[in-house]
Amino acid sequence: MAPTLPSFDVRRLRSYVFRLPLFTRIVLVLVLLFWILELQKIWDVVQWGSLIPKAVNFGTMYRLNTYPLIHRNFLHAFFNTLALVPLLERFEAEHGTLLSGAMFAGPLSTLPAAMYLLIERGVLRQNTAILGASIWVFVLLGVEGIKAYKANPHFAISTYRIPTWTTPLVVLLFTTALIPNTSLLGHLGSVAVGYMYGLGYLKVLAPPEKVLRWIEGKLNLLGRLPHYVSIDQKTYGRYGVLPTTSNPSLSGASEGAYLGSTQRLGP
Predict the structure, then answer these.
(1) What are the backbone angles phi and psi of residue 263, rounded to the nearest 5°?
(2) Distance between the two ends of the chain, CA-based, in angstroms?
(3) Distance, CA of 31 to CA of 36 (rounded, Å)
(4) Nearest Cα to Cα of residue 51 among 34, 76, 72, 68
(5) CA dist., res. 152 & res. 79, Å (int)
(6) What secondary structure letter does DSSP report for 68?
């Protein structure tokens, strides 16, 4: 009997979409909303929200947050969100909705932007605009690369042992080579920020868990918001480390174990 190709299961896709956590849904809605706004000709959304180095000043600091949500066209938005959703929903499931929102509205967007501005405007004296959710894709790939490295430091190809943390860089090189008008500099900054987060260097920029728990309890977010992920319902620990136990039978032994586009103005 001839082998058959696996068929596309609409029900499985629908089930996956319906199970997406809250912050991931909000990001999808915002990307869609900005793309719809781009269809009108009165207001140039791309010019307004993309990260244009020489257009950034104290009055336009919002660009440090808006540029990952804005895309050049439908295909640009579609493929970026297609790559982003699996990574983002996993991050939210591990870290909670509040922390995810705080980090992506804050340092996981502004730090790659600041690095790009520093080099593009301060060193290269250029003014190339960048935009697109691939900024977050490569941040999350950097986070996953460090997690994979801690769980399995190397993978083998023939006789060569390659560090697993280099995987995001390989993806970056292929993306730059195969997709026109992508920003190598912007993506490098994103991977670097992802590495820093995965290594725990950005802990100081994260809201304290005590504050997050207080907000959740005070506002009863878990009871009021569908698909909300509590800080206490994370799959893993806050920075990828499972909590330890006080089980006397394991005295002195820790059960904690590690588990483990930005684009130029173009497609």
Answers:
(1) -135, 150
(2) 42
(3) 9
(4) 68
(5) 29
(6) G
Q: Which region, left, alpha or beta, applies to residue 52 given φ > 0 means left and ψ of -120 to 50 means alpha? A: beta
- Active-site residue list: 134, 187
3-state secondary structure of 129: coil
Q: Note the pLDDT of residue 35.
A: 95
Helical packing angle, 97-105 and 74-95, nearest 10°: 130
What is the C-alpha separation between 50 and 66, in angstroms, rounded?
A: 7
Alpha-carbon dihedral 198, 202, 207, 209, rounded to 10 degrees: 50
One-letter amino acid for residue 56 of the chain: V
Six token digits for residue 74: 């439908």
What is the residue whose two structure tokens read 């808006």? Answer: 66
Residue 227 phi, psi (nearest 5): 65, 15
3-class DSSP assignment, residue 42: coil
Please determine, for residue 69, whether its predicted confidence score (pLDDT) is greater than 50. yes
Average pLDDT over the chain reads 85
Helix, strand, coil percentages in the chain from 3-state DSSP, rounded to 5: 60, 5, 35
Residue among 45, 163, 63 nearest 113 (CA): 63
Residue 150's Cβ-side half-sphere holds a number of Cα atoms within 13 Å equal to: 16
Contact (CB, 8 A) for 17 and 227: no
Sign of the CA dihedral running 116, 119, 121, 126:
negative
Residues in the chain, overall count: 267
Q: Which tens digit of pLDDT belongs to each residue from 120-132?
A: 998 999 999 999 9
